[in-house]
Structure formats: C-alpha cells, structure tokens
Design a protein that fits this description.
Elements lengths: L37 H7 L2 H9 L5 H9 L6 H13 L3 H9 L12 H18 L15 H12 L4 H24 L2
Helix pairs in contact: 2-3, 4-8, 6-7
Length: 187
C-alpha cells in the first residue's frame, strides 16, 4: 500500500509578515541576525540549504525535498513526526537510493583488528545477500556494546528473506534519520 503526500504545511498563524517582503527578510535599515536556535535557522534557511542539511540525515532527495517544502515547523517534535511520515512513504526506489548512501557505523576507538575483520566479513555476506549496506540504529546503545550489536544484528538479519529485510532496513533507516536530525537540530 502506497500512501501519498499527506503532510500539511506547518504555518504559524501568529507569524507577522510585511506584504512584499520575504518571510525572515530584515526590514529596511535592519541587519539580519541569524537565529540562535538550530530549528529556527533550519526553518529560515533557503530550500536548497535545508535540503543539504536533511540529506546528511537520510540520503533520499525526495524525503529531503518533502520536509524542506513543509517548513516552518513549530518545534522539533513536529519536524521529527514529519520526518517519520516521509520516511514511511519512501518508494522501493527511494529506499534503494537512501541505502546506497549508507555505510557501516563507526567502531569505537581501540577496537581490535580482529573485530574489524569479523565485521567486514559479516557485512560482505549481508551485502551479497541483500545488495545494500547493513543499517542499524545504535543511538540507544552504550559505546562499549556497539560492535556486539552490529555483529549480532547482521548475523540475525542474514536469516531474513529479502522482503522482510527490506522492511527492517527501512525501519532502521527511519530511526537513523530521526536520530541524526534530532542531534543536528537540538539546542
């Protein structure tokens, strides 16, 4: 089942606007002071800059354009909810494009070479089976458990059939995008 675009524009009813002047533009005689809040800066940025920020969170141009087009967001929770919905609506082609831009999570400093070898071998087996990089959200994992979670995740997900893994990879990508976006735009 494919859902179409359903995100409403998040317009603030109390935001004042001078006719003939772009939103956020300084009044004559004023200099523009960049917003101190990262979300305010994101909301005020030109569309191409907002898309660039979003593409660092999830490498799907469709997802990024959709979120950028629905600015401004009144708060971070609204943006994260919109990001989730847009991620759920990714087509298989959009998902493949986003997965192509992913790589394995960084391992903590001091990880033994044998661990890197084991991870490389497991990842190669995963890519051979599913045709894309393994993605997993590690935002809630203690740093010392990251390697174990990645290896366990790859090994357990290698048993999935391709459609089951596509759904799981899409969910992990959504969680990654949400975590990256929250980290990027939190004060």
């Amino acid at each position: 089942m494919t859902r179409g675009p359903t995100l409403p524009a998040h317009r603030l009813p109390y935001a004042s606007r001078t006719p003939g002047r772009p939103t956020g533009a300084p009044l004559p005689g004023q200099t523009r002071v960049p917003p101190a809040d990262p979300l305010e800066a994101f909301n005020a940025a030109p569309a191409d800059e907002a898309c660039d920020v979003l593409l660092t969170c999830l490498r799907s141009p469709r997802w990024a354009r959709r979120l950028a087009a629905h600015r401004p967001y009144p708060d971070l929770d609204s943006l994260l909810a919109a990001a989730d919905e847009a991620a759920y609506d990714l087509s298989p082609r959009d998902l493949a494009h986003a997965l192509a831009g992913e790589s394995l999570p960084e391992l903590p400093d001091g990880t033994y070479a044998v661990a890197h070898t084991a991870l490389s071998a497991a990842h190669a087996a995963y890519e051979a089976r599913f045709g894309h990089a393994f993605v997993v959200y590690l935002g809630d994992a203690p740093a010392g458990e990251a390697l174990d979670r990645v290896l366990e995740g790859i090994r357990s997900r290698l048993a999935n059939d391709p459609e089951e893994e596509r759904v799981r990879a899409a969910e992990e990508l959504r969680r990654l995008a949400r975590g990256r976006l929250a980290a990027r735009l939190r004060r």
